[in-house]
Specification:
homodimer; 385 residues; alpha+beta; Rossmann fold; Dna Ligase, domain 1; D-amino Acid Aminotransferase, Chain A, domain 1; 3 domains; nine-stranded antiparallel β-sheet; four-stranded parallel β-sheet; 17 strands; 34% helix; disordered N terminus; Rudment_hybrid_motif (chains A, B); ATP binding (chains A, B); metal ion binding (chains A, B)
Chain lengths: 385, 385
């Protein structure tokens, strides 16, 4: 190891997905030693990071070995089990965020109970272990209701909108077989979905990004408009304050994303994520400090960077895989058409519907930006429109 | 190799310095396979790039082996000898820029002769092989004059301002011993130094960045202000047109930096560089398309990105090594003081005077930005002010 490497901290990110890839990209500028624990060399982050280690990113032995060379561990995903996190912590590993915070991103029952304690706005909900719990609940809210797996869901997986007792029973049966605890939530009559991100450092500093509008289809984030067009200033500030309060109360270190439903009367919390988040990819090209740099600054207990935007609006569209694996050959068209557009490809094998990249464009008119981002993402996907 | 890697091109960058490091950072977003040929694992780029190969980055054998796995080779420096470049080209390697263009960045005599042919504004100059050439020349221009090594100089090395025949003779003696051809140039009475960067693709597309002011001390670039404050619009456009004409006439592919002296009557060309350049580091944080992304787009023959700026002004200050190798521990202070400031550290061992990073800040008032960038760079250097 050179002299330099002994004077900078080593950050280990658990998981080798695109979040780790883009965190590595940010870490290059900070000059820290950044390493990832990935499943293999074809993982998105491992394809670009000089110091990729390979192993089971949820297993204690591989995590202990990985932690030995790191000053701080952070996470590309929420899937490291609590007992593993506790054991890592017990053996002296610095985990940011820590297990007590992460529980709220790992288990929706824990999250909902804590949010209720804190008085944060939530949909009506309850834990369910038998069909009577669902039908009782639906008697109060009306059908349909939303069943959610308390643990392990993402991108729409683990969420079922059920229209009657029969559909609910089928979900309960399957969950019982797979030993997945469930909760039921009212189906919120929302105008739109919003998200707000804050960073928090161990020192206690917080920085809030603008509230964004997220457009989901089939549970997958398709587009993000930053800031959310037409959002009343008082509602935006209230959402940022809510996210800051949650980050502080839950002792989050790093980035916290709070996914929200906007209703006629305010916002309710849908989900929490304690890592860089798809709703913040626009910050790479649209903010002075990207969420990835901010996450690193937070977990290193450095002063946070300015979340100020570089343009009135930024729009991000996810690039989902189509049938043709050759996305690169379509770069020429989108780059020639729109020289302002930023393309981000994750180096992942293309599979239909898989998030393989995103595009971002910034400017003054959100409708124009949305049209341009959508056009580019659809063209890069390559399927007939 | 995964399916993805077979559908994206592989770019090899020769040399493992900070230019390759920052090009890798840009390549992550483009999703191309990027590899570097570095001297060893502690090289700036090798410390962050997943695919670093090690060898002699000026030697034919190692370059041939490196080229085998690359669709296109490009360069972090100008030091690959012409015979090596020619042999690489003969064996089918795609070199961007090619040897015919690179000659003009490698040999100041070739560059000056060609610029004279093209009618580009230059200082008065001539080749010198004996002291009489210098004294004859100085009889026309007056002393002092500037002696330059035709090949191998950088960052002020290979440039001597000599006040009389005796000083000139000493330089000539040393150059003769080292078999370095020399030229003499008039010492230009310049108001300030400027630089202009353009990108050019094999297709022939060009994109010009704003003309910047560069502040040099001891031959090393210390600060860059983009765009150059108070530069008359017609003079700025003329400088951009000059750079475009040179890029086209010399068949440059990739980034071209033209370093200029601004005099009372116009500009004259000082130096050329055919790669990303220190005068363009501000583009990472200050332009829609960084010079590093632009260089990759050009050498891959992709449509070029918009060089538009994200703020009225950007200021970059180089971070030079001081006596204390521990720069990182001083991050806290500069980041707390100026949350808008962007820090870029190159992962290089700290040595006094060595370029080990840079800082950038963007905004409305160049004097304010310059003050902030200087303060941060001086503090990070760590020496008493």
């Amino acid at each position: 190891m050179s002299e330099t490497s002994r004077t900078v901290p080593a950050v280990g990110m658990v998981g080798g997905g695109q979040l780790a890839r883009m965190t590595h990209q940010a870490g290059i500028a900070l000059g820290v030693d950044f390493r990832v624990l990935a499943a293999g060399p074809d993982d998105s982050a491992a394809r670009v990071c000089a110091d990729a280690r390979f192993g089971d990113d949820r297993g204690l032995d591989d995590l202990l070995a990985f932690a030995e060379d790191c000053d701080v561990l952070t996470f590309d995903h929420e899937h490291v089990p609590q007992p593993v996190l506790r054991e890592l912590e017990r053996t002296g590993t610095v985990l940011r965020p820590g297990p007590d915070a992460l529980r709220h991103a790992q288990d929706k029952l824990v999250m909902r109970a804590r949010l209720r304690e804190l008085g944060a706005p939530c949909p009506r909900w309850r834990e369910v272990s038998e069909i009577g719990h669902v039908t009782d609940f639906a008697a109060g809210t009306g059908w349909p209701v939303v069943l959610k797996a308390a643990r392990g869901g993402y991108d729409g997986k683990g969420v079922w909108v059920v229209g009657d007792a029969e559909e609910a029973a089928a979900v309960l049966d399957r969950a019982a077989r797979e030993r997945v605890p469930l909760l039921v939530e009212e189906r919120v009559a929302f105008r739109r979905e919003l998200a707000v991100q804050v960073a928090r450092s161990p020192y206690g500093q917080v920085a809030a990004y603008p509230v964004v509008e997220t457009v989901q289809r089939d549970g997958i984030c398709h587009e993000v408009v930053a800031p959310a067009p037409g959002l009343a200033e008082d509602r935006a500030v209230a959402a940022q304050e809510l996210a800051i309060e949650l980050a502080t109360s839950l002792d989050v270190v790093g980035m916290l994303a709070v996914e929200l439903f906007e209703t006629d009367t305010g916002v309710v919390v849908n989900e929490l994520a304690m890592r860089p988040h798809n709703s913040g990819h626009w910050t790479i090209d649209g903010a002075r400090t990207s969420q990835f740099e901010q996450h690193l600054r937070a977990v290193l207990d450095l002063p946070l960077g300015s979340p100020r935007t570089v343009a009135p609006y930024a729009v991000m569209a996810n690039l989902l895989g189509g049938r043709d694996p050759d996305v690169y050959s379509r770069y020429i068209h989108v780059m020639a058409k729109d020289p302002e557009l930023k393309v981000h490809l994750y180096g992942k094998q293309v599979r239909p519907g898989r998030k393989i990249g995103h595009v971002t464009v910034v400017g003054d008119d959100p409708a124009d930006l949305l049209e341009r981002a959508r056009t580019a993402a659809a063209y890069l996907k390559g399927d007939p429109q």
